[in-house]
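Researcher: I'd like a structural prediction for the single chain below. Treat it as a standalone chain; there are no partners to consider.
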Amino acid sequence: MSATVIRVAGPAPYDVVVGHAVLDRLPGLLGDGVARVAVIHPASLPADPVLAALGTSYDVLDLPLPDGEAAKTATVAAQCWEALGAAGFTRSDVVVTYGGGATTDLGGFVAATCLRGVRVVHVPTTLLAMVDAAVGGKTGINTGAGKNLVGSFHEPAGVLCDLATLATLPRPELVAGLGEVVKCGFIADPAILEIVEATDPADLTADSPQLRELVERAIRVKAEVVAADLKETGGVDGHPGREVLNYGHTLAHAIERSEDYAIRHGEAVAIGCVFVAEVAARAGLLDPDLVERHRAAFGRVGLPTTYDGASFDTLHAHMAVDKKARGNQLRLVVLHDLARPAVLAGPDRELLRAAYAAVGGGS
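Model: Treating it as a single chain, here is the predicted structure.
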């Protein structure tokens, strides 16, 4: 099957290429006048396929990173800056990221800040990175206060989603990536939910047409949202704009921090989406049947829908530093119906406590 090209519009438009064996398109995305290419990847994931695609036309700098969220620190970013400087990197050179969402976040941040911005091409190797981190230009690192609190908007020059890389992805990682996919079904594209509900979860594999359609639909959702509101300044007619992509993420990020990032992001997002659906129902905004559809859809693909690993007060304190908060006021993206998102500002603390109890949490 031929590759699918999804155009992300905006001030600096770029293509997201989805298909099997698409790495041969990498040189075409780098641009002209490139002498050096820095390949940023987890140390546990050899970058051989990227190196093979680059051939001998470039001076390649190999930059291995710690695995997972451990890469997303100021210390690791500084090590990359020093390596790029020592290699004589210039503004006409390019960073290529090869790995999951943490690699994309860190590598994108390094590209955004090195020489005040160099081009970056993302080659995501996990489902989560394909449908979330690699598209949209958000970059970031973690601090002791929370996740992704330091970062920059820096759109890539292109994204290559080679579905063949998912064949070796551990099943729990593939399932976790479906958390962001199912989320897109609730906030924008209910056809995603219909596919999930009609497909045996065991059939969602790297080579299945159903998974490919889910990936393409989720990327299109994100592409349309970021094209309309790249820097999260807000939507029109009551739509939250880019904030909608954070549906479920306020609690999800709090859980991740409470778990010291040992929980997978997509798992935390699934719990967070069920939680915020409970919030909306208790606020009289969402039909209770749609709350149950949240539980059923996330649960069907194998994601958790309950959590009791931290007290409500602990998680509420973490939520208070959420990036969507304004002053002392918490803001949650909620739904009024399928694909009808809005922002609920300043929700009552006891309402939140009740919603957390509904997902299995304690006081």
